[in-house]
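hey so i finally got around to running both of the ones u sent me last week. sorry it took forever, my laptop kept dying halfway thru and i had to restart like 3 times lol. anyway pasting them below in the order u listed, first the sequence line then the structure token line for each. didnt double check formatting much so if smth looks off just lmk and ill redo it

first one:
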Amino acid sequence: MKKGFTVLVCLLVTISLLLTGCGGSQENQPTHSKKVPEKTRIGVVVKALNSDYWKLVEYGAKQAGEKLGLDVTVIGPNSETDVTGQIAMIEDQIAKRVNALVIATSQPSSAIPVLNKAKSAKIPVVLVDTDIPWDSKVSYVGTESFLGGKDAGNYLAKKLPKGSRVVILGGNVGDPNMDTRVNGCKEALKENELEITTVQPANSDRAMALTVMENIIQSKKEFEAVFAANDEMALGAIKALEAANIHVPVVGFDASPDALRAIKAGQLDASVAQDAIKMGYLSVESAMKAAKGEPVEKRINTGTKVINKDNVDQKIDELSKALGRSIL
């Protein structure tokens, strides 16, 4: 009897050991946790991050990232003239294998080779703010500068009698954005039977615009208004006009914080506002769609709006909120 009992115990121990060996310990069991999908990574490279305009583009881009669940990186050199620095930043984003790129090119001719590198790496590229003749872009998101220029010309036409003469200050010779704004204004002036006294380049610079405007005044050219293709030039022109005690309407372009302050103070008549926040948002949204293989519109016009004394306070509130500080 004892012998039978001993055999039974041994048999049970053996079975127990076999079961333990087959099952293994709970600690050694492999875990199959659900992998969290990576966020779509969008690299945004702007012309610079040292101005309020580009900070507004950045704000819009990051808003899109938060709302759409994207990993958005916004970078740019310290100056719009640092073309080499911007190209290096684009190359770095390509090396990091982002899912899509949003680019505001500082110098189109220099940018095309690096954009072709992105194409070779199968990284879709959306252009924001500045369009360039590059067929491989997914989309251009920004202001239709010609229509913005027409807005400025039509605004002046409402304030001036037919036959009035207008001075136009343009940007760097060959700058596509500035040239297109000027051409839009010229067409509107012609359609409204206004004349153009002169078109002078002032390199988008306040100090140069001051000098150019002083020279125009000293040359005794007659004019009843001024259009400047950006606000920096408009503000420079105002200084020259004030010094000469000349009071004529001046219209700028961009609705920068300095320009809005000048409008509120009664120095600048108006400025054509671009929607920089909308540009940033829609360009990132378009890049996301491209990265997912979804269709994207080839051109997305973010629109313009003329800002004057009637709506300047609303614009100031909008920009102050986006920048996180009062711009007054």
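and the second one:
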Amino acid sequence: MSELAAAMTRSMLTATADLAVFDRETADWQRRPWPEVHGLAEGIAAWLLDHDRPTAVGLVGEPTIEFIAAIQGTWLTGAGISILPGPVRGADLRQWASSTLARFGGLGVTAVLSHGSHLESLKSVAPLGITVEDLGIAATTRSASGLPQAETANHAILQGTAGSTGSPKTAMLSAGAVLRNMRGLSQRFGLDASGDVVCSWLPLFHDMGLTCVLAPALLGLPLWLSSPAAFSASPFNWLKWLSASRATVTAAPNLAYNILGKYASLVSDVDLGALRVAINGGEPVDCKGFGRFAEAMAPFGLAAGALAPCYGLAESTCAVALPAPGAGLRFATVVDDSGPHEYAVLGDAIPGMAIRVVADDRYAMTDREIGEIEIRGTSMMDGYLGHAPIDRENWFPTGDLGFFDDGGLVVCGRAKEIISIAGRNIFPTEIELVAAQVDGVRQGGVVALGTGARSARPGLVVAAEFRGDNETEARTEMIQRIASVCGIVPADVVFMSPGSLPRTSSGKLRRLEVRRSLELVD
């Protein structure tokens, strides 16, 4: 048994708290004490050991009690997990199932556990060499002789990376790396079983979503777990869940905080007074949107100090830099030719991790010494699947640009995404946040791109998902706003229908695909 599986067993069996999972069909919470969840994990482990002892197990589906149990059940057998997303709306289910099983096969997965309609789709196209089973059936398996001592696989998690600026890869995470990352996060935020409650709706195939399950499981904390679909059906549900659970810790991306901040007038009858850590990570933090959320929720008891802008990536399991609890949203101001810009201060490296910024003259665009962020430490992956292994003692280049402020790390953007026009270097987020203020432009649906002289549209091009009535007026307003605030005039503004911009499985925009779709590649 790995040190991670052993730690999970100790915590789950001694916990007095419950795991509560939201059931969309009944609109109710299904609850099980953590010791019972571990009992289900043992049943799933017994099923896996009776079926060729796979070294990697695939999980697909909305969160259920059995789904969470399957994570620990897999680790009890010594195998690793890979979690992939379900089908998006409008997808051909047979094609989705075939593609998903092909991806699992490429990862070395030989057993897939699922439930509901996902299960039937997967079973209907399962190839030889991959067994697909119902999570509920697997969880009821009992071994007459108990679980034998299982050999531990090299990797506890096969975690997909975002692929927002290139091809997605699979990070191979050892049990030790996962355990140390969870402990580093818990230590920084001071998580305590005597008072903390976690509430999350983030997807489990994303590193932050999985962390929001593993961290409380390793401490025996109460966990209220819903799904992205339940959040999307009504984002205000999230506030109701936080209020009902008296949650002290939650997490979400910019989009979620922006929606609730923008439509706060529709909020009523919630109490956010218990919330002390509201994590925002996964992309450069929208300071204005995050701050607007805090102001809008203050009448409902939210303390400004609860805001926790963070930095992390799948290659380091999840967390890299976190602020101290209670620090709130702090800004670092960067001044360039177009004026001052505010970026969130993300705190210091968690225990076991180290961060440095390697200065580069190519990024000398402001009054700050900006360079590429490099990381190393105990939470690092062993390497990408199919690539050479990495050494945790060596510095790993993240591709992100930033600098250090008195309060910690500041991330400005991705090196690959810098827009260079007329001798100026601009981060696309500066333009995208301004463009998103135009009426009719969908929140989180804007991409700013820079193109060369040989491109079909040379200069700055803004692609935006639009659902308004007057494109001409909106286009004019967007150009004027960007020119006034950012000091640059877009060569073109391209409006697209909502949902048409390509995204990663975790919702990040795929900028390179946007360039290709608009035939902007030089």
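quick thing i noticed on the 2nd:
Residues 319-415 form a domain with the Luciferase; domain 3 fold (CATH 2.30.38.10).
anyway thats it, ttyl
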